[in-house]
User: Fold these one by one.
Assistant:
Number 1:
Amino acid sequence: MNPVLASWVRTRLRSAPGAACALALLVALTACLAAAFPRAVDRYEDAGLRRALDQARPEQIGVELAATLPDLGLTQAQREDALRPGPLSRQYARALATVERPLVADRAQSAYGVRTTRDLPATDPWLPRPTGLPAQVSLVAQQGLADHADVRTGRLPRAADPVTAATAEVEAAVSAETAESLRIKVGSVIHVPGVERAPLAVRVTAIVTPRDPAGAYWSTQPLLRTPSLVRLPGPSSEADRYWLGALLLPSEAAPAMLGTTGSPWRYWQLAPAADALHAHDLEELRSTIASLESGPGLSRARAATDPLTNVNTDLDEVLASYGRLREGVQPLVAVAAFGTGAVAAVVLLMAGGLAADRRRTELALLRARGASLRGVAGRLLAETAVVALPAGAFGLAAALLALPGARAVPAIAAAATVTAVACAVLPLRAAAAHRVVRVHGGREDVVSVRPSRRRTVAELTLVVLGAGAVETLRRRGTSDSAGDQLAALAPVLVGVIAALVLVRLYPLPLRALARPAGRLRGILGHLSLARAGRTSASAVLPLLALLTALTSAAFGGSVLAGVREARDHAALLAVGADARIESTAPLPAALPDRVRRAPGVRDLAEASITYQARPDAGEQTVPMVGVDPGAYAALAGRTGLGAFGEGELRDPAAGKSAGGTGSAGETGSAGGTGSAGETGPGGETDPAGGTGSAGGTGSAGETGSAGETGSAGETGSAGETGAGTRQEVPLPALASPSTARTYGTRPFPVRLEDGTTVTVRIALVRDRTPAVTGADFLVVDRAGLSDAAARPTALLVTGDHLDAGALRSAAGESGHVRLRAEERAGYVDSPLQSGAERVYAAAVAAGAGYAVLALLLALLRTAPERIALLARLRTMGLTRAQGRRLLILESLPQAFLAAAGGALTGWATIRLLSPGVDLTTIALASTQPPPGETELHTDALSLAVPALSVLLLAVGVAVGQAWWSGRRGSVKELRAGDAR
């Protein structure tokens, strides 16, 4: 830097240290956030990938190279040599070299060896035979047994040198689980069939325990660690089972397998190193695996091992499943990133514009004295860079230290972009304002300035882009628009368009109100409107920042609220209430009272659920639920799952068999007819008109033990026929739409699991019901069921802050307890979901913070002029209270415009984009809710809170300015204002 330029920079920094510190703080904070975003995304995506690999079985994610020995072309000695450790080790090393990044093999868990591909029957009589079938074994000679196992009993097996196909006996080890299941001890000898020779004797010399049972060394072939009880394939019964275990031979004993019927294969299993795999390499990973399975990678693997080698892995399926989850989350996070980035960019532009306006007179004087435009811009760039470059580096370092373990290049690029923008804003803004030499400028308020043609063209271009983005998002949706930056920019563009429209409309109401206000007696209304109309036309930037931030906050808040609602509703559908206690057998009679006394329980509904009810005596089964209509109707109404009226489901005959007449022939509790044949409460005469022995009439003229007659003249214990079939008035039933379509509204019998039959008639149709899930169900009054079928098998509990421990203690061993809160927490089964939510919430919060900063910058820009104005007006008799009201009234039009416009724009954005936003992936991952359950809906708090905050902040700043100006003398303020 030349001495003149250095002297300029030092002088400017000394003359305005506060502005330099504020710029440094703004750049450091913005660079830190910009650098932190890609690193945070990398961290949660990598964590999600590792979780997906951990949840998959090692045999799924391992890459196995396997090769048989050719039947022809090799002598017996060559075949034996091919199975020895030396050649296998060299082939293993070459196989590892063929694996290309980003796929990295975990050498500690990778292995190679020889195994039999056909299970060998062991006819030794002491081996267990659960169903009479002999046990079978698999011979495995896997390298590295001593490094991955601890010897519990005996010693590790050794091999005589050399072992051939004719060797009569070899040594082996077995895992502790295999030894326990197959009753193997150290010294046991197991004989397996030979080929053209006597059976091969395998002597067990060690019982070992795996050091890392879940590691790929033991779990890629689980049989090495854990034996299995194998069921014979085909239509055989469950009794046809036998034990299958693995005998672990030393590597040098592998040639002995050639003398058996096991058909040995060589294999090289490569375990991927999960910590070395990264989500940003996902496409390259999938390409590498595809190449290994059937491409150039397979050719290299065969060249390294054997021409007959095949590669098998399910890692590509695991990665594809993770990729679908990632693609569903990425677009929503991109929306938040673009929204926050746009607001941050506007704030940086505002900061540069504020500095240029503050130094307008100085720069105009320099230009008037002959300074070149390039020279002025260069000096401004130098003084800004001296502040911004160290601040940007500090912000980048903070992000790198706070979020380790992620890529540095995207973070450096983001921080460098922020720093470059901060350096360039002031020089470019000054060059644009002073390209023509002038001392005095014209008025630039929103009322007098007319938009230029260039501005009109730019605004129309943004409108076209915004409309295209919205239509793209609505048509393709977030689930199909991964990587489509235009779709991710849709909310931001809607906010930009709204800001431009509002800035054009803003002068109209001011002009309309200025004249009526001028005829008022007070001066505050007219003066505040005039002051609001004199606001600089450059107020489009603060309004743009506010509207973009409010739109992003409303959209982001609605997304987060929609995710919470989707999980809560899915958990409610799964549980049916706040908690559920269910058993396959009837619950104890005392359990409901114990549950009611548990902390937080407000109410419960008992339900007897028969999952195998058979309507019309057919083969199709439908879940049938017996409930108490009052409690169940209250539960359905509270949860919103198929609400209905209590009386619509109640059994019309429930009280008649127990109700009879009073002493004077009055109506019984269920509407039975007295001696004078009075009708029941429904106003209908009994259809059969028969009278019970106590003057009560049964619902169908049947007499049971209380005087009801069975339909065939037989007397049952409770008005039922001897066969246990209820033949009175059908029970009204609540059914699903599919069940109603199948059976209609006619009465039809339903046979229950206890052998009884009940006649029902579908009276209500609801899409859902709390007790059961699925497309088919029937709900009836359990008072109409037999005593056995009516006993409750489930309790549906409602309440706030339920104590899971207390509920499980009350239930004991009698039922399984499920809580809605635990079910909801289970839907977040990947760090990809939780990480995306945290980043989304942080982006929304950062956008809101930048919006507040934009509002403060806009108010700070006009603060000196406002304070000077108050000082002048006080010399003319304006009181302090009037000064406060003037500043509040002056700031309200813009604040109200931003708040109302932001809320309206946010609402419109959500309404426009909701058809294309799918929250299923981020909310529920693999769980698929019913259609329409995860659509984006407007969240009232996300609209109202940011808008009200803008109003309160604007009023608070106005009050603060009035208070501050009142503390200082008018003369001092006038001098300060004149100086400015």
Number 2:
Amino acid sequence: MQIYVADSVLRSGDGSTYHPFKTVSEAARVAKEGDEIIIAPGIYREWVKPACSGSKDKPITYKAASKGDVVITGAEVLSNWEAFENVWRVRIPNSYFGDYNPYTDTVRGDWFFVSSDETPHTGEVYLNGKSMTEVFDLPSCMHPTEDKRSWDPAATTLVWFTAQEDDNTIIYANFGGLDPNRENVEFSVRKACFFPAKIGVNYITVSGISFRQAATQWAPPTAFQEGMVGPNWSKGWIIEDCEISESKCSGISLGKYFQAGNNNKWTSFWLKDGTQTQRDAVCRAVNEGWDKRYVGSHIIRRCDIHDCGQTGIVGHMGGAFCTIEDNHIHHINIRHNLRGAEIGGIKLHAAIDTQIRRNHIDHCTRGIWLDWEAQGTRVNLNFMHDNVPPKGTFIQDELSLGEDIFIEVSHGPTLIDHNLLLSDIAARISTQGIAFVHNLIAGSFTYVGQGTGNHGRKFASDRYTPYHVPHSTKIAGFMTILHGDARFYNNIFIQQPVRDDLLQYCVSKNHDTMDLNNFICGTVPYNNYPSPSDYFSKFKGDAVELYGDRDIYYDHMPVYLGGNAFFNGARPCDNEGFCHVDKDHKITLNIDETDGRYTIHTNLYEFLPRGFTVPVNTSTLGTAFEPEQRFENPDGSDISFDTDYFGRKRGRFPVSGPFEECGSDRFTVQTPYDYSNRISHKENGRIEDKIATGQVIFGVDNSAMSADDSTEASSTISLGNENIPDREDEAAEINANILITGCTNVGISFPFEGGLFKVSDMFVKGNEVWLYDSAEEKLVELDCEYGIYRNMKRWSVGALQSIEAGLDANAEGLVRTAGTLLCILSKSMPHDSSETCGTIQDRVNAGLTPKGIEMRFTPKHLKFIKGKKFITLEDVIYRVGLGDMEIVTERLEHL
């Protein structure tokens, strides 16, 4: 059943198309399994608390009628400001807030660091949608100065201060010369925007909604973890195509439920250490039902998550078995008004079997922090940069330094592959049981061999953390971190210039050592770690008899290395023999951003050698030592690293780093997909642009209105994209790299299966092409190298870049060639196929040969050679294209 909501109606109805509910909360109270709640554009000032569960096959869906035009906010408009000296003030009776006043409630909790003179409140004041900076006395409000801790210090002069007076909350604010009675000023009053009041509300889908401005509390792993949006210890949620912004602490919470008597127990009583209370929390959760059958398995995809004070996504245990993909997470904790050990774009504890892939994470105080039990966790295909403070920032403590990835006190297996780690500090590695495979790394590894104790000054305080039965929440054991048990295969390390300000901070703290905050790119922090043969040879003979050498059980574990390449002074460790070290060439590496499109420019591939690596797979990586678990998929199947960052097939001797193709000096980085402009069509129907012409309108029933209500009838509510399927429902999801458009304009057609195939577009990825006939709504997949084709029945296909066939004769010729091969393979060729192939081959090679490329075209396949090596059709298009290709966001779909 569909339930409709529209805040524009004067009074609430019954949820029908002509009498929609006025609030989302009304719909949430009545929605049942399989229902779809369609929300009209508007601003909804409410905390939605879903009450009922859906099921795996029939979730309850909350969907914006138009993506991005539905806002659910935890804030209210704050008006009636009065001038007070050189600032403004407003008085709010405390009775207005009910049982929760964010301007008397302060941010607090385990691992939250606060000074006595700066105790922030959970509330926030917003000027035109952006949070202002809280100060802690009236003079600072009257005479604000830039806070140099912030990554945007100029913005910190817009400030506010709160005080209590006669059972009223008084807010003073300095708007930098603006009149708040003429601007949009809001203040947060609710703890959340979309969060169940009880646990176990399963299988909820949230799609296309903007969530903003909630007064969330600090979310450590030893407390109930609040978030602006979250499932509250449930299973099977999907949060997709949403914007999550301006949460005081955390944007999305996947984490921990409330444990009575064990909520912020450390800082409440100061008796048991925080690490001990966290171990207690994990064991108690297992005893109370933390299990894959009931908790986790959420999906967060294609969301824009930004400007949150603590984390973009947080979770402890509830974030297990999840998928976090295709999101843009940025500007998290950049003001540094909140400090503590629970900060990051993504901060997860116990992310068992969680997959974090294809995300763009930038301008966060650390990108991803995987803390405790990152077992079966895989981080791959992510683009990460600028996750350390910009130049000129005052660095308050070492956790403010940040990095792309922090892995802490976990036993693995934790897999980091095919990522671009481009910040000055790539990874903080206070852990073991890890594998770095096919990454491009431009920063250092820090805290190798350190950071696993608990700051004891007199007594040993090593942290014992749990490991689990593979692919399960069941605890298999506890152990401290010995360091090592690390694998580094087929990575590229490029030393960048060391920033003097970062270095001087570390020098001032005596942390500028190889095992703490070094800035040397490479595996060199693993100097003196044993090789596998040296390590395991100790466990023989008299060395391990009853009263023998027990120290061997507590020494550093081995490091496995191979196929890594080092440039610009990046340094391998002393055990690394099978690698390439280039001391002769200067490698440039720059990121260019234009309108959200990121391009990496580098001369790396002029000097990167080929043929010195070997393929890597699950067997190569072996098992993480403590859990005795392989580096494998969550279902236990093998991982074979046989495709690159763009999905291109890797060769027998794969190229180091994330990109297999070495023929380019620039790469347009794959950033999260834009699904806002899809072109779709149904079976036996014409293609139509749903955004422009396919909107569904539901209106208001005039007959049920009084005369005073009649003005409302003229405002219809548009619902767009109502038939865009969930990606899980699509039979074939094809993400090509190149789209050749305009083929109809140049008249490319050929006989095929008794008819005439008129090519509209051709999608290309590697040696595979997809030929699209818009007139017949037909898509055919063709593998040029192996001469295999098939008709696609249900599909969705899109591309990253495009060129116009009419403007590029080479592209047009390659489309005609691929079409001819399909014609031959389908036995639709009316002429001699060998003669046709020979003629086309001669003509095409006349243009390709000057570029050093030779085409081989036979009735069975289409191949290309440069030098003595085979190259892909996609690479040929890149090499012969006349101009720059442009980003493509449109997708052709057959539902």
Number 3:
Amino acid sequence: MTNCSVRALTLGLLATTALASPAFAQAPAPSDATPATPTTQSPAPGTNATDVTSPPEPVKRAQAAAGVPDETEIIITATKREENLQNVPISVQAIGTRRLDQLNISNFEQYTKQLPSVSFQTAAPGFTVVYMRGVATGGDGNHTGSLPSVGSYLDEQPITTIGGTLDVHIYDIARIESLAGPQGTLYGASSEAGTIRIITNKPELGVTTGRVDAEVNQVDHGGMGGKLEGMINLPIASNIAFRASAFYQRDAGYIDNVHGSYTFCGDTIFDADENPIGCVKNGFHIDNSAFVKKNFNTNTTYGGRAALKIDLNENWTITPTIMHQHSKTHGVWFENEDLGDLQTIRYRDEPGVDQFTQYALTVEGKVGDFDITYAGAYMDRPNHSTTDYTDYAEAYDKYYEPSGGIAYVYYFFDDAGNRISPVQYIKGSNHFKKLSQELRVATPSDKPFRVIAGAFYQRQFNLINQEYHVDDLSALLSVNGRQGLIWLTREHRIDRDYALFGEASFDVTPQLTFTGGGRYYKFDNTVFGFAGFGRDPAYITGPNGKGLPGHPPPNAAGSSRTGVAQCITESGDTLRDSQQFGTDTTLILDGRLDGTPCINVADFVDGHIVPKRSKGNGWTYRFNGTWKPHQGLMFYGTVSKGFRPGGINRQPGLAGYTPDFLTNYELGWKSSFGPLRWNGAIYHQRWDGIQFSFLGANALTVVQNGRKARVNGIETDINYLVGGLSLTAAAAYTDAKTIGNICNAAISVDPSPDCSGLDANGDDDFVSAPSGTRLPVTPKLKVTATARYSWAMGPGKTHVQVGVVSQGSAPSAIRTEDEAAQGKLGAYTLVDLFAGYDWNKYNIEAFVTNVFDKRNQLSKTTPCGAYCGITEDVAGNPLTDDWNRIIVGQPRTIGIRAGMKF
């Protein structure tokens, strides 16, 4: 064990009182904290009013003297009622305002470090897919792939998006709630494995207050960064309040773009029979000297949020909110495994912009004894980026070197017939729009029988555009009408969800409560557009499916099976089949998307093309029993079911995929013993028809259903407060494995358990992931712990804090070939240190994060799937090149921050 490891372990032991995780709540307020405003809440099911209301002042003073946690500060809305965390019979982790400030959390990666049940894959800020409790297959997040399995909410409104979890800047946030396990009853389709909710601080009536915070930091091996944030709350009238926050943050870079060059195959070497057997490396030479730069992966984020609270009368309140956030990135966030520390080689600038604006309205009121809530939102999220794809061409050149290289196998020529460089780059964009509306009714929470019921509607729209450019590419080799594009994806995707839901709770006795609920869901999802290569109109497919002698290639890649070749003709056949079998070759152009040559992601119905469609309906449920033997102790048992809708494979000829379902069996406890709070849960989950994606033919993402998987786990957390010392520890143990072999072909194509049948193309199937394969991304053990101590000094308080996050290794992919190419995600332990001083309305703090400068691996990828993780070329000769990309966390960072409240 290294000295650094010993130091990390020692600090971890000092900060940790137990291995623990799910009801990870905000740590109890230390004695130096500003008291929370006393709040009276409706009693939780099965409790008396005194369980959740602020206790009398003499009792509070006695509790404070004894170091007893003030539980009134941990009020959550995970069950869509305001309830004390300790009375909610589900596995909830909550990080409150004070703790978010203490840990200096401002983004997704930082707060998920504190949630042991949460794992994720990421490529760059804003391009992250989140998982919970090990329900992951890896490779998710493609814009035409599966919907997420974990829902994301900003206040009452869903912000779940495909292709990247919204990385909301964390400032002036009341709390972050993480609900582990299926939340299909109250939260629906994209909450199959869990839900993360970001709850903002709301405007306060009759109060003028604000704060300003600033930070500057230095990243080891990198540059300077910092942020400036501010908030203000103003009374407009006796019944109207306004609250706004604004932020600007620049994250310093730490990845170096180092010098690199490459010479492609040029002249082809032939044998006596004129078969290619190799190449001479005298082709096009590329060099990235113009783009060499240190610390080139920077991210600048700015935006703000504004809200009004309007009390129409004593029963009705409306809260309109708007939030805008704009992020601009440069560079990449990965290092190349075969280069030095924090180094990569890129051959062009790679800027990216990701922004969103959300308009939301919440209306709350009463009709008689019933609580009525309406929550509606509209979100607009456009993004665009440029990506260097040189390593893709380089990988294929080396792979095909025994056959003459990429220049011989493929066809890269200009209009005059001259060879051109095969280097590609991608210009991609998504324009995501989301409309959601929910109306729900709740009966009084102080009655022994309580009901909450509602209706939900959601429409998600995404205009997908991915352009693969090759400079100077001939028009005949390009996507038709789009010269210079070797490949084009341009599609409309629309996902519609409808639901009716309800839950009822009955107090059999003051100590025993039963809850049951269900959700009727209906989904209707469509994809329409074009994906693939172009096709030379003069190209004719022969009887054997190949080109006739004397005809030019169909496109630069020489493929006759994808793109324009698969566009739909007026006969209902594809263009390729129409040419081969002599039917009508007139393409249907009515209704094609702007910028596309024709439509091949569609169905032919009654002489017209219509979007490819996946729809269905069904039920999910939750049943729960709660027993409270005495004050401060609760046990619960839950059976719940979540689902994720089925979808569409954009590749022509491929069948779609069906919904998958997650069934959860869980036993949990919540307890408070004076200054100690201990919560936990043990669970078993069964995942049926698991959806997983991989790169298929022509590097198109394919989604198919596997068989089953099971997940066993335990989560627990401990919070302890005495005097100026607070200790928090949380952990999750996750054992997630497949049940039954996963075949390369979809289970609907080859139902044989040993994958001995044929795939959709009639080729032999094979085992892609054998039974018992560990599900990827999630470590078996993840632990987080924090120790904080504060004491009086002069006119204020001094504090020191140490935080530790440690997790084990994890597979990077579920398919055997992908995992072999990429390798595992490494284990790591990170240590953070803080020290500061608070006086009057001012505070200042110095910090060091990632004290021992560890390289925590967040994700692993290759530029073109397992094909670029090859160890042999096409002739079977060994290759030493390593194409793995490792997305690493931020190196050691030293900084100082200061703030002022008024």
